[in-house]
User: What shape does this take?
Amino acid sequence: METLAMHISNGIINGPIAAIFAVLAVAVLTFCVLRGRRDLDDRLAPMAGLVAAFIFAVQMLNFPIVTAGVSGHLLGGALAALLVGPWVGALCVAVVLVVQALVFGDGGVAMLGLNITNMAILGTAVGYLLIALLLRVLPRTSGGLAVTAFVSALVSVLVASQGFVLEYWLGGTTDLGGNLAGLAGTVAGFHLLIGIGEGLITATTVVTVAKVRPDLVYALRALKPATPAPAVPVAGGAR
Assistant: This one.
């Protein structure tokens, strides 16, 4: 094909599997709306807009993985989870994907449920689970937060990329070359490099925000240390 669409293009996965994941995506996002409404306040609402805009910008940088319509790019799920939480974070990424598909033609509209499942739901969920674990065992310092952001971003990118491999196994219609294990390795290897870049960007962004306004980092507010001892603040006197 002459142009490579961002995300999964139409025709890569068959209709029935795409429809199943579309229903799944709608159901999960509906739940996110219900839960996210509890978190929204004067602090979180504007941050959600900024996060969505930032993710939109970084996702415009995409790199071809295979020639049949799949590309790799920064995802932003862990960044969103750190700054605005898993529920609003998933919605931010989903909104970005919808705008990209409908307005810019990035990713097939028929594949939107698959792309949302992989990047908005799976990537954000895995990222937040790691964040919740790491913030309970690492010190609440700039270094601890940076490690948390880097690791969660890297792993979330790898897991989200393997979501595509699972979907292709369930209903792939295009020959992407080689066997499924080879495809999984190719996608994982490429996204390992992307994940490292995303981890660095996520760590830098979140630590910078935390030093200036730690109250704007959702994860620092919502997740408490595992021990009752007072946490070491990221920014002097904050928390």
Summary: Confidence is low (pLDDT under 50) at residues 1-6. The first strand starts at residue 62 and ends at 66. The CA atoms of residues 65 and 190 lie 7 Å apart. The chain has eight helices and two strands.
